[in-house]
């Protein structure tokens, strides 16, 4: 896949250069394999996140932590939907006649990809407070805090981190500088990476020390795996986008970063299933029961039942 398509550069440049570049830049079979791989990942990931959204949104009584997971599943679903569109359009090519559709999915991808990072940052901070200050977190946590945080994250990303501004400038075909083009990715890197890294290391150390005395809880295992996979798979897309606007990078690097980002958005439901399932039990468990077991450890003095 061409780097222009992956990183959503100026539509004028994309329209004029993409077909020639995509034909001459690499082996057609490699492009086919890449396209099929990312479509398969996106389809299965969308189904998994859709199941999580349905169960946490309508079938399971929500608590403060599952509210974060519900919003994270929505963000991941949006990333996969937008990525599926761009990959499918790579083969069909109807975007050239309908640029407004491009900007709709560009906005969807940028906002949901950034929201997932801020949601994971909030999740990591929430877990650190729960682990290091368990009494306060269990009994004195402000009511509806997770709902308020999730709402603020969506508003912040959609309206104040240049998602809307950049898309508006592009839609009217005005010049967007390199800084403006990469602004939100730079903000994601500066604000989210240090917090998530410190939180992940702290939780890992705490979990290892606690494991000597007690069995590690499912919820903490889920969070550690989710943060680890994000740092390894999804975050490099920020760096690739910034570097692509500054220097030339091989196409396989940008395509690989997009593939890993989609894989990260697809893997969370798998983590919930693998960690929550009782492997030694002969009783067959549904996804609803598994999610209930994973997130029941959050039950405490304060419960929250609205998103």
TrEMBL record:
Residues 48-272 form the G-protein coupled receptors family 1 profile domain. It is found in: Membrane. It is a multi-pass membrane protein. InterPro entries: GPCR_Rhodpsn, GPCR_Rhodpsn_7TM, MRGPCRFAMILY. Coiled coil: none annotated. PROSITE patterns: G_PROTEIN_RECEP_F1_1, G_PROTEIN_RECEP_F1_2. The keyword Cell membrane does not apply. The chain crosses the membrane at residues 32-56, 68-88, 100-125, 145-165, 185-205, 217-239, 251-275. The keyword Nucleotide-binding does not apply. Keywords: G-protein coupled receptor, Membrane, Receptor, Transducer, Transmembrane, Transmembrane helix. Gene3D superfamilies: Rhodopsin 7-helix transmembrane proteins (1.20.1070.10). Pfam families: 7tm_1. PANTHER family: G-PROTEIN COUPLED RECEPTORS FAMILY 1 PROFILE DOMAIN-CONTAINING PROTEIN-RELATED, MAS-RELATED G-PROTEIN COUPLED RECEPTOR. Belongs to the G-protein coupled receptor 1 family. This is Mas-related G-protein coupled receptor member H-like. It comes from Gekko japonicus (Schlegel's Japanese gecko). The lineage of its organism: Eukaryota, Metazoa, Chordata, Craniata, Vertebrata. The gene is LOC107122907.
